[in-house]
């Protein structure tokens, strides 16, 4: 029965289609459609089928061609003017045509039929299309489609396959019935909202404007930690909203009125305390009935990740804007699109000044074209560039940038921009240049320092080896700079060094090098040396030049210099060896009386090696306690009575035996080790005095020498007081001897120190008197009780000098003058180095009665001196 009815209806529809085409009118059919007397779907299907049949029959029915074309035109007119949206779809699934109703409803900017649907329904359309291709027809109900103006609609679709011709594939007609408004009023809207949102819900006004949730998707628990039941119990989901966003919830959700819709963003607090961002979309309707209700349909989408990404982007933007680095962004043509605040601070340009301007605006004319060309080549190839170049400020001033420029790629992987991050390194470069100068040049004189001089010598050695030429290195020391520093101050000493540097420069050729290695030491490099004599000539010119008085500021001084010379290839072939050998020769020049020059020799090197070994052994001797004291008596030459002792240091080396002071004291004074020897001598002397006292041995004063290095130590007085207190030695038990040269080294300071010792009760003697340059006025200021005649003056006195009427020699005259001077100043006179009866008799004849020397006793260990102290005298040979 059902089949018969369908056949009757189909026949009737086909008759109606024929009538439309035959009568060229469809007004009556439209009237019947509006009265609902037939289905448009079936009518369209029959029309398309009939149309296809007509096309197939066209060749056979040429006489009816005009009628068929007219019928086709009328069909198309019907298709276009149907109020029902319709689409013509190709066999491949591409949209070919759309009628006016479809154009006004759908977003037809997509070529594929399946892409009319929103992403979650694309597969549904694809399956329906495949079904229509195989079976001829397919229906899709409640499909989410892209509407005009980015809207979303829900519609029912019907796909009908139209037969193809011999040369063409079949096509499909698709009708679209918009069901959005209907579904919005139905419960199934909830399901659709749940699909399109993370949380979907519906709530009604329970009275007094308070919303009560009556339906919600189960996803609420995953996003909030609360079950649907818990939310319904609370009434609405407003309890999840953080306090700061409650006003948004009230105005955009709770208080929305029928006919209104809203969209907002707010934050919810999860059960675990975490915060998530939600985008809320709501629509309010009025449900009609016996008691009309305000109902709100809504959906929540979790946008936390988007917010975090946006926050990150904003933070990144702030970092770039507030970065201490210069940031510039350009397009691929080098047109500036962005600069940060640091760029403006450094360059003086405003953003407006440079926006849309080429980066060439910043280019400084001094930049090398090759650098810029290489940079653009790398960037064009998508590779970063790093380097330094000069740019120009708005004022025109050049500045140095250290830049890193990298290509920026878009989502397709194509380079769209270039980003430069740079630092203004102008000050760093200036500082680097300054540091480079400081590390290679002497800041006082502007001469090369040791580092640069070594480089110059190494270069000269390479050139000399290549050309088989000779060169010389001269090490020059000023002989009395310390005296200038002590008397006039270090500022005056610096000015003197500058003046000396200027004077030495005038002696050199352009290819020669002058350097200052530190202190008063200068180094000269002489290249292309023709003969050894040329190096000696230069050393002599240096002496002559420095012999002339030097004016520096308001001061004027006479100075001398000592010079050591080393030659290549005769003496050495390396930089270190040449400098070392020149210094070794300088050391000998200074030891030979200064104000001279010496060439390096192999023997000299051996001497220096021995001295080095001696120095190292002495340092070890301090640790091993190898220093001992010997004592030499001072006697009354008339009676032999022992008046006092002089403590003399000896070095008891385990391999070398007893080392006399003449071998190691000069080295100790040169290296400063003598400062360590003095305290040892003082302590040993006090310790021996204590032992003699405890043993009941008669005591006489013990004289201890103070070197120049030790005399001017700040702690000297306190150290002496500490040691004598430790060993319970009185000031009367000790005497101190100071050489004339040590006292004259800094007379003012010497007077203060020696006066303090005298106040403490110590007796003082001036040793080696006559060998220095003490004036009578200085001598009168020193608080001395005795003068010691140096042994060098007594060495020349013989028996002939005591013969009555003998002509006085120079030594005799000097000794007599010293004795007379001491008598006139009220000072005791002590002669040292008395070795013969003639010398003893000469001194007694001229009223000098106290002496020490080998004639009376050699320096002896304490054990051998003890019997002499016990006896109180020595035996004087006859």
Give the gist of this structure:
This protein is α+β, with helices and mostly antiparallel strands and 878 residues long. The chain is 44% helix and 25% strand. The protein has 33 helices and 31 strands.
Largest sheet: 8 strands, mixed, barrel
Outline, from the CA principal axes?
elongated
**Total number of strands:** 31
User: What number is the mean pLDDT?
Assistant: 84
Helix amount: 40-55%
Please mark out the parts with pLDDT under 50 across 5 or more consecutive residues, or reply none: none
- Rg from alpha-carbon coordinates: 58 Å
Main sheet: strand order: 23-24-26-27-28-29-30-31
Question: In DSSP terms, counting alpha (H) and pi (I) runs of 4 or more, how many helices?
Answer: 33
Structural class: alpha+beta
Distance between the amino and carboxyl termini = 176 Å
Percent of sequence in beta strands = 15-25%
Task: Explain what you see.
It contains 33 helices and 31 strands. By secondary structure, the protein is an alpha+beta fold. The strands form six sheets. It has an eight-stranded mixed barrel with strand order 23-24-26-27-28-29-30-31, surrounded by four helices. Strands 2-1-5-4-3 form a five-stranded antiparallel beta sheet, with helices on both faces. Strands 7-6-10-9-8 form a five-stranded antiparallel beta sheet, with helices on both faces. A hairpin with a 2-residue loop joins β19 (550-552) and β20 (555-557). α22 crosses α23 and α24 runs parallel beside α26 (716-726). The radius of gyration is 58 Å and the shape is elongated. The N and C termini lie far apart (176 Å). The model has no long low-confidence stretch (mean pLDDT 84).
